Amino acid sequence: MTELAILWSILLAQVMLALAMGLALYRMVKGPRAQDRILGLDTLYINAMLMLVAFGIRTANTVYFETALIVAVIGFVSSIALAKFLMRGEVIE
After folding, report:
1. How far apart are CA 70 and CA 63, in angstroms?
2. Can you tell me where the transmembrane regions are (predicted)?
3. Which class in CATH covers the domain with range 2-88?
4. Half-sphere exposure of 51 toward its Cβ, with a 13 Å CA cutoff?
5. Which own/partner contact pairs does 46-52 have at CB distance under 8 Å and 24+ positions apart?
6. Structural domain boundaries in the chain
7. pLDDT tens for residues 14-73?
């Protein structure tokens, strides 16, 4: 019974994360300002990372955890680059 509850909980979490990813994608496309679009992108990559972690737990495969770490690092670097671009108008000084 416990394993079934865990599987249903992970499935529910994946559905909620997919819904959050859809809303973040809407904010990226529809955002009135560049800051809104960047926040939508940040939310999208965080939700994608969490979706990979949930899928890794569900399938008991460690490849998804490593992929989630790579997505997190690339997302963080891109967030810093976009924020610097918005502040100064250039990424590399």
Report:
1. 11
2. 6-26, 38-57, 63-87
3. mainly alpha
4. 16
5. 46/72, 46/75, 47/17, 47/20, 47/21, 48/21, 49/75, 50/17, 51/14, 51/17, 51/18, 51/21
6. 2-88
7. 999 999 999 999 999 998 988 888 899 999 999 999 999 999 999 999 999 999 999 999
